[in-house]
């Protein structure tokens, strides 16, 4: 067959080939079908089994952060306010909005006493009492301390009063209940901050009698066996309802004379949690009736 015929056949066969048979990189293939604007848009395909997370924290995560911050701030707040009749906020858990008979009783601080105990003193013998007189610029208070109420706590208080530990210490806390009822006057901290004590703590004892106006009890923290030198005097019978909810503040006696002095100390402070000019105990003396 002539060469020209062969050439024609080859060209004819080429014309019969579909554009789809052309290699993808041939220019002719692209010209055969120009992409429109619609065709040029990127096509999306569904993705299966993939979890997409937002970069914004979820509500639960944000809430967790807030809780942590609140706890941290609360911890700092309680640490700074140690020295209430309970363990850092109130005679039983801050029922008075921050009032409590506690603190850091085991911490040591400056004191005018000499030969004071450095560990738990001997209990006051069963059946015995002591009279402790607290002299203040607002008058005197006479406390009757009874061994049968809390022998360990009573012996501790009498030993500290006898060595002059309480001389010069102040009533550093004078809180009120939320309804304005006078709560307690609290003292016995050699640092005057609510975080001081004699450098040791004593064993806990059960509370045998109700808290009432004139009750003298020891302040403590929420930890077991945390009583040191801090004590408080209850100012109103109503306060007993708050204190009994904890019922852990060892009662050592009562004010048998001079409750008007306790009231005057409270009044002088304006009933604030931490008075700016707290009233001091100028001298404490102990007598054996």
Task: Provide a brief overview of the structure.
With 289 residues, the chain is α+β, with helices and mostly antiparallel strands. It contains 7 helices and 7 strands, in the order H-H-H-H-E-E-H-E-E-E-H-E-H-E. A hairpin with a 2-residue loop joins strand 1 (129-136) and strand 2 (139-146).
Description:
- There is one protein chain.
- This protein has helices at 3-16, 27-32, 37-40, 59-80, 151-162, 239-243, 259-269; strands spanning 129-136, 139-146, 184-187, 215-218, 231-234, 251-257, 283-287.
- The chain is an alpha+beta fold and 289 residues long.
- It has a 7-stranded antiparallel β-sheet.
- A hairpin with a 2-residue loop joins strand 1 and strand 2.
- The longest helix has 22 residues, at 59-80.
- The protein is globular and about 40 Å long.
- The termini are far apart.
């Amino acid at each position: 067959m002539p060469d020209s015929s062969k050439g024609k056949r080859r060209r004819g066969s080429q014309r019969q080939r579909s554009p789809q048979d052309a290699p993808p990189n041939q220019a002719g293939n692209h010209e055969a079908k120009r992409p429109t604007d619609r065709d040029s848009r990127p096509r999306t395909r569904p993705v299966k089994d993939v979890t997409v997370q937002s970069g914004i924290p979820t509500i639960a995560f944000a809430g967790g952060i807030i809780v942590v911050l609140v706890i941290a701030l609360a911890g700092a707040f309680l640490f700074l306010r140690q020295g209430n009749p309970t363990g850092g906020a109130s005679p039983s858990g801050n029922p008075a909005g921050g009032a409590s008979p506690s603190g850091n009783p085991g911490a040591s601080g400056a004191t005018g006493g000499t030969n004071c105990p450095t560990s738990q003193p001997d209990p006051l013998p069963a059946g015995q009492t002591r009279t402790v007189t607290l002299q203040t610029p607002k008058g005197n208070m006479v406390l009757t301390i009874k061994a049968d109420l809390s022998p360990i706590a009573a012996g501790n208080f009498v030993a500290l009063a006898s060595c002059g530990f309480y001389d010069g210490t102040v009533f550093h806390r004078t809180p009120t209940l939320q309804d304005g009822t006078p709560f307690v006057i609290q003292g016995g901290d050699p640092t005057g901050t609510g975080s001081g004590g004699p450098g040791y703590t004593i064993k806990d004892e059960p509370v045998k009698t109700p808290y009432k106006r004139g009750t003298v009890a020891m302040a403590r923290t929420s930890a077991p066996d945390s009583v040191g030198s801090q004590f408080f005097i209850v100012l109103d019978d109503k306060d007993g309802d708050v204190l009994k909810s904890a019922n852990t503040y060892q009662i050592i006696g009562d004010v048998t004379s001079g409750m008007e002095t306790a009231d005057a100390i409270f009044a002088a402070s304006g009933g604030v949690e931490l008075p700016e000019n707290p009233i001091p105990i100028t001298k404490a003396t102990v007598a054996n009736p």
